[in-house]
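#onboarding

Welcome to the new folks! Below is a worked example of what a typical request in this channel looks like: someone posts a single protein sequence, and someone else replies with the predicted structure as tokens. Don't worry about understanding the tokens yet, we'll cover that in week two.

Example request:
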Amino acid sequence: MDRFQAMQVFTRVVDANSFTLAADSLGLPRSTVTTTIQNLERSLKLRLLNRTTRRLSLTPDGAAYYERCAQILADIEDMDASFRDVTRGPSGRLRIDTPPSIGRLILVPALCDFHTRYPDIELAIGMGDRVVDMVRDAVDCAIRVGDLADSSMVARRIGTFESITCAAPAYLERHGEPKSIEDLANHHAVHYFSARTGRVIDWSFMVDGKPRDIQVKGSVSVNDAEAYVQCGVNGFGLIQPSRYMVAPLLASGQLREILTEWTPPPQPISVVYLHNRHLSPKVRVFVDWVSELFQHCALMSGCKYMDQIDQECAFAGKEKPQAAVRKHLKQEEFEESVF
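Example response:
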């Protein structure tokens, strides 16, 4: 048995959570993958995987063996990369997961720059609403908003996510503008509920340096980003979107920011990756690149007006023309992860 190939097959099965998907990605018959795992377990005299008709799961021994295999394979990849022709950079397929709004507004406009720097890296960018399992879904690194609790991940903070409270001028003309958080008792909000859990996302404000949750009445609840913002524009109630998502609507006057003294708590934006893959050259260059990207983008620096974005927003050091920025700042690109 080729032990190196067996380690590759085993880690791919774990990453894909499927013998069939692992076989497809490796270009091997499924029977070969199955036989390889059986021979590996026989050689180690250990059961590595629990198999049922519906799912695979690692045994405790399998989890420990996976961690060691992944580290060894990453070390080998890094060693090989260090001895390659210096004119050739990192290569291979790199799977990224990101919230849809960040993917569309920040990453996608800058992809030409990334491809110019690293032409041998093939990017696969997932932009779904659900939070992926990075091991099961074979994701190399992900961009996450909010506090991170998974200790198996390495996280690098790359920015801050800011939300605002706003409403359509028509709503404010009918109901008046709230001047304090207490005034919200006399107002209505558009509620957003999670498509995954069904739970309505709480409203929150910073009061005396501490977050405070507030319940606001509402007659409309949605779980679609476009509908949420459109309800606000149409005057159904107050909304709490991210600032950069509604920048053009604030600039055009379709929405007006309110309660500026009590802003929602800011949330960190991080790029995360599995600790046993931190040596991968393709992961390393992407993490460095996306960190640089966020540092130079005014969309993530809290700018309030469209002309500021036009003048200041640079994607990886390249100015985007006004039309291009406005093209990517569409209200329908508001998504669940911004709450």
